[in-house]
Amino acid sequence: MSIRVTSFASGSSGNALLVRTPGAAFLVDCGIPQRTLERFLARDGLCPADLSAILLTHEHGDHTQCAGPFARRHGLPIIANRPTLDALGVALDGVATREIGVGSGALLGDCAITSFRVSHDAAAPVGYTLRAGGWTVGVAIDLGCWDDEVVHGLSCADLIVLEANHDREKLHAAPYTWPIKQRIFGALGHLDNVDAGSLLARLACDGRKRTAWLAHLSEQANSPGLATRVVQNVLSLAGARPVTVAALPRRTPMCWDSDTHLAQLSLFD
Length: 269
What we know:
The protein is α/β, with parallel strands linked by helices.
């Protein structure tokens, strides 16, 4: 195993990714109840003491719900940038923290972590590039738009975990207030299916074979089938063949393993 990623939860009701390498095991975000998290870890053959840290993308509750309590209970450090740590405030009392600046890098065991700025209405939201054993995972969830910095952050990724939050027409018809819809549509809100597909198409210009996980799907304004279909259509129109796309379930674990990556994509050969 060079690097293995398991999505435990994805969506507005909670987000958590488990990343495992030969020398480290850590969470990216921790937005689900502790008991649920412990149960998912056990299914993956781990106990909380096996984790190295909790890495946070930003401070919103669906990404940090049990970060403080879980870290205190099991003696785990929390890694984030200073504005995110400050925004969480007393929720992190008694927790060891480690700062990684926006755009900076750090080592966690044998995994090299680099953060990059994303556009979202949080203190200092970031995506991450995670590298181990010659493989790279890129994570960009909760972003209202993308730019060259996001493209650069994801450009080397073999697995991309990318927000595809909503369908524009379904969001217009969704039972939200207009201010909430405006927030979601906005540049500091959430990425829609077409924009997610456009970003993946831009990345696919280099011909690199990739897997893309569509993350943070709205329960009211999207569906796994719709998100996958729209993104695949955008990729097809752009002639971007070497990308395989799958929508993440909200609360069912889903795994990607670098050791089987090339076999999974062999249909593109």
